[in-house]
Every structure is written in structure tokens, then in C-alpha cells.
Design brief:
Elements: E1 11-12, H1 17-32, H2 39-62, E2 70-71, H3 72-87, E3 90-93, E4 100-103, E5 110-111
Parallel strand pairs: 1-2
Antiparallel strand pairs: 3-4, 4-5
Helix pairs in contact: 1-2
């Protein structure tokens, strides 16, 4: 599976429409092999994204589980810890590019720079 496609089911809060669309875009990119289609393929590429998005929404709304919803922050922390274990020290920058934290292998503790 494409590493950029994240699990969207059974989270609190639930997946947003934008997250579902982003996953659909990644899926269509993976299937087609295009990150950006040519003008000749753009319409069918965009149609595929919309159809996959609709199917994903139906799927997510239809799935049933007895498990408690997972906490997004907890799952993100586990993913960061796994990345540190795999790659060593990493830098995480927020969306505003003003704050970044560096983490090391010793327990994913932020280090001040």
C-alpha cells in the first residue's frame, strides 16, 4: 500500500472530507503512476478521484466495529516513535513553519535547539 495513504476508519474525531479526498488522490496517483496527469488525461484522472472519494465515503460510513475509536494524537505519537526507531533523529515542522522540534531515539523527547 502507498505509504501516504493513512487509515481513516474508527478515529475520534472521524475522518474529514478533505482527508478522504487526499487519500483518494494518493490512490489514483498510485494506480495511474502519475503525480500530475497530462491535459489529455486530466478529466478522467479527476473523475477517478471523485469516484474513489465517493466509494471511500460510503465504505467508511458503512463499516461497523465494536472497538473504541482511536485517538488521533495517540496514533500520531506512535507513528513518530516508529519513524525515530527507523530513521533516527527527525525534525517535525508545524504548518506555519515557525516551530520545529527535534526528536532523538531516546524516548522521542523534544530537544531544544
Amino acid at each position: 500500500m502507498c505509504r501516504n495513504i493513512k487509515t481513516l476508519f474508527n478515529f475520534d474525531p472521524p475522518a474529514t472530507e478533505q482527508e478522504i479526498r487526499d487519500a483518494s488522490l494518493q490512490f489514483v496517483r498510485k494506480l495511474s503512476g502519475f503525480t500530475k496527469p497530462s491535459q489529455a488525461n486530466e478529466a478522467v484522472f479527476n473523475q477517478a478521484i471523485e469516484e474513489v472519494c465517493k466509494a471511500a465515503q460510503v465504505l467508511l460510513q458503512s463499516l461497523i466495529t465494536n472497538a473504541e475509536p482511536r485517538d488521533r494524537d495517540e496514533v500520531a505519537a506512535k507513528a513518530r516513535a516508529k519513524a525515530i526507531e527507523r530513521f533516527g533523529k527527525i525534525t517535525i515542522t508545524t504548518n506555519n513553519d515557525k516551530i520545529s522540534d527535534q526528536y532523538n531515539l531516546a524516548g522521542a523527547v523534544p530537544q531544544t535547539a
